[in-house]
Each structure stands twice: as C-alpha cells, then as structure tokens.
Design a protein that fits this description.
Distance between the termini of chain A: 54 Å
Oligomer: heterodimer
CATH architecture of one domain in chain A: 3-Layer(aba) Sandwich
Shape of chain A: globular
CATH topology of one domain in chain A: Rossmann fold
Helix content of chain B: over 70%
Structural class of chain B: mainly alpha
Largest interface: A-B, 32 and 27 residues
C-alpha cells in the first residue's frame, strides 16, 4: 500500500492560514477525511497529488516529494473533484476516458481496449458515444471516476464526490469505491459512506483534531459540530 | 436535435472520410466562397451542403439547429445590406455565412473530437521548429468544442436565477454572472487538466 506522509505542513492563501503544522502518515487502504466547510480538508486533499503545494513543510507519496516530483506524483495519485462537469474535458464519454491515456505511449488499439474495459466496468458502455454533458449527475461522476481510474493510479483522492448527488447516486458511487483495489482517501460530508473505512481524520480550523476509527472519529465530529453555533443571526 | 454541433455517431461516407480531408475541404470551401457573387450561386452552394447533410444521414432539423445561433446576426446583416447594397448582396453575404457555418458544423457532427485533434496535431507538427506544441493546439480545439455546451448550460442557469429572483431582462445582470461563472469553470478545468496529468 502506498505511504503518504505530511511533515510540518502549513498553507496560507494570502493572509488567510488554512492549514497549520500538519504531521500525518497514511498507509491504510480506506481513509476518510471530514470537517466543516473551510476547515482545510479540501486544501489538504489537493496537496496529495500536488495540485496545491504547501507553503510550509512537505508532502511525500511513496517517498516522492509533491514539490519536486509533481508529475510522477500525479501519475500515482488520481483525483476526483466534487463537480464532474469541471473534470470532463472531452465532448463524448469514450473520448473523455481516452483523454487521460494520451501521452502514455499506448497504441490506438491498446487505448480503445482500455477505454472499452473501463466503460464496461463502470456501466457506461451503452453511453460511449453520447455527449458527456447529457449524462445524469451520477453518470457524470461515474465518468469522472472511470476517466481517472483508466490510468491505473495507485491512490485515489476524492474531494466530496457525492455532495452534488442524490442518495441513490451517492450510494452507487460509494459501492463502486468500496470495490476499488486502490488506496482511497475520501473527503466527504456523507458520514455514512465511511462505514468500513480503516481510519478517519477530522479537520477543524486547519488542524487534524481527531484521528481515529470511523465510529470514534464520526462521534467526535458530530460533537464538535453540535458545539459550534451554526447561525448567529435572527430569522426575519 | 443537436444544436451544438457535437458528434453524432454514424457510418455514412461523410463519417468515414478522414478528419484531415474534411478539415482541408472546409478550409478550401471557405477560401473559395469569395468567388460566390450571385444569389443563385450561393443557393446552389447551400443546396450542395444540405445534400452532404443528407448523405451523412442528418435530418433537415439538425441542419436547421446549426443555423439557429446565427439568426439574429443573419437578420441584422441582411437588413444592413438591403439598405446599403441591395437584396442580392444581402442574400450572397448571409447565404455564404450560413453555408460555411453548416459546413463547419457538418465536420464536427460527423467527426470524433479525438480524430479532429489527431488531425490538427499532425498538421501542426512542422510548427515544432517554431516552438509550437502540437498537442496543446489539439487540446485547445477539443476544449473549445467541449466548452460550447458548458457555457450554454451556465447561461441557462444564470437566466433561471434571474427569473427566480424576479429580475427584469438586463444585459449587464446576465453578462457579469455568466462571465464570472465561465472564468470559475476555466479555473476548475485548468486544475482538472493538471490533475489528469496535463502539466503546464
């Protein structure tokens, strides 16, 4: 299993500090990340494949520093965004899956075989030539997932992949993720998706405030959220 | 109906034609269109393009859908020439415009984007000596085609938000959020391209 290490990681966007002194080593197959909006969890997720570089400290994936070996890290770590529309870059379903295989030195036949296999695996074979923008929300997220996984990354980082989906589609994505052989780091607000995970990190104000089993971490997170006033104004 | 010119699967002779041949034919037709000066010549060109649609197995409704975005520009252009140069010139200018738009749409309707990209990348390869990255030019073409439905979708969302808030039709209230959302989408797309291994 790949090993992800964060050492003294901090990050600032201008004057705003979003992550502070993060030290964590991740080697489990299923790791959940939860936290309130703005707690720093998405920034941390983006750091894991070098989309965001820490302003302090370093992140290493299997010994590869995201700052010095970003390209190699991104080959190893796939990333799935919240909004699949932002991730789909080609007009049709099959073309989008094939896009990630460009520049990989594969022949047209090899690319076609891998695309066909990925579409079949994720139930999109009947939509191969369909315009991607006409798929349902769940199908778009499946396509985004297929497009990342066709490149066979060792790690999959997912940033709230079910936030825009209804319960049925969220469950469908969770079922697919459950069967993946990859190491998966899932950032989510859907706490029930973390059942069966090996470990859950709770983020609050740029720090990891709890690092435990899913049941203990989720209980801690619920307690943390209930202790925070959600609304300070008065309804009119 | 496919008003956005996106690929329609098929096995017609037009579909089977190599992407490079279609692109070269389109460029030649564009250059040759300056030779069309009489209304009957333009009408003949339009009929020829529509015959190509029929050969590709595309219905007249699909062809009509490609011209819809051109409606207002066409009417204004025709009105201008009607006043300044006479109706014959108006028919020639608007007719040529319609024929070329239909022809360009026929290329995207009958060609997979990856084939278009491959053809463009191959055509741009000699430009490497000028430090042009052919893959990047191909990607630009692909993203351009992909972004058409995205921007149409964003415009629809902005319009719905305006209606929901009871705002009267205002070009500024429409254009500003559309621009902001489009730029945000461009940012997200850039991040996604990087995440998917396309550096720089």
């Amino acid at each position: 299993m790949p090993v992800i290490e964060a050492e003294g990681v901090g990050h600032r966007y201008g004057e705003r500090t979003v992550l502070t002194d993060l030290d964590v080593r991740i080697a489990e197959q299923r790791v959940g990340i939860v936290g309130a909006n703005g707690s720093g969890k998405s920034t941390f997720a983006r750091m894991l494949n070098g989309l965001v570089l820490p302003t302090r400290g370093r992140i290493r994936v299997d010994g590869l520093d995201t700052r010095r070996a970003g390209r190699e890290v991104r080959r190893k770590v796939g990333f799935c965004f919240t909004d699949p529309d932002a991730q789909i870059v080609m007009p049709t379903v099959a073309e989008d899956v094939a896009f990630g295989l460009r520049r990989r030195g594969l022949s047209k036949a090899q690319t076609a075989d891998r695309v066909a296999a990925a579409l079949a695996t994720y139930g999109l074979a009947d939509h191969a030539d369909h315009p991607a923008h006409l798929l349902s929300g769940g199908q778009k997220q499946l396509l985004a997932l297929a497009s990342v996984l066709v490149t066979e990354p060792a790690v999959l980082v997912m940033d709230e992949p079910t936030t825009l989906l209804d319960l049925r589609n969220a469950r469908m994505i969770a079922d697919v993720v459950e069967r993946l052989p990859q190491q998966v780091l899932l950032v989510t607000h859907h706490l029930d998706l973390l059942d069966g995970f090996d470990r859950v990190l709770v983020f609050d104000e740029g720090r990891i405030v709890c690092d435990d089993t899913p049941s203990a971490a989720v209980a801690y997170y619920r307690e943390l959220m209930s202790a925070t006033p959600a609304f300070r104004g008065e309804p009119s | 109906m496919n008003p956005l010119g996106l690929y329609v699967p098929g096995s017609s002779p037009v579909h089977r034609l190599p992407a490079g041949v279609k692109l070269v034919a389109m460029v030649l037709a564009g250059a040759g269109s300056i030779l069309l000066t009489r209304p009957w010549e333009v009408l003949a060109a339009l009929v020829a393009v529509l015959l190509l649609y029929a050969l590709a197995g595309l219905s007249p409704a699909v062809a009509g859908g490609q011209l819809r975005p051109l409606l207002w520009i066409g009417l204004v252009t025709f009105g201008f020439h009607l006043v300044v140069n006479g109706w014959q010139r108006g028919v020639v200018v608007v007719g040529v415009l319609a024929a070329l738009v239909l022809l360009a749409a026929l290329v995207t309707l009958t060609t997979r984007t990856t084939d278009l990209v491959d053809a463009v990348v191959a055509a741009c390869r000699p430009l490497r000596v000028l430090r042009v990255d052919p893959e990047r030019v191909g990607l630009l073409i692909a993203l351009g085609i992909r972004c058409v439905p995205v921007v149409v979708g964003l415009a629809e969302q902005v319009r719905e938000a305006q209606v929901a808030r009871g705002l009267a039709a205002s070009p500024r209230a429409f254009a500003v959020p559309l621009l902001v959302r489009s730029l945000r989408h461009a940012d997200a797309l850039g991040e996604a391209l990087m995440a998917r291994g396309l550096e720089d």
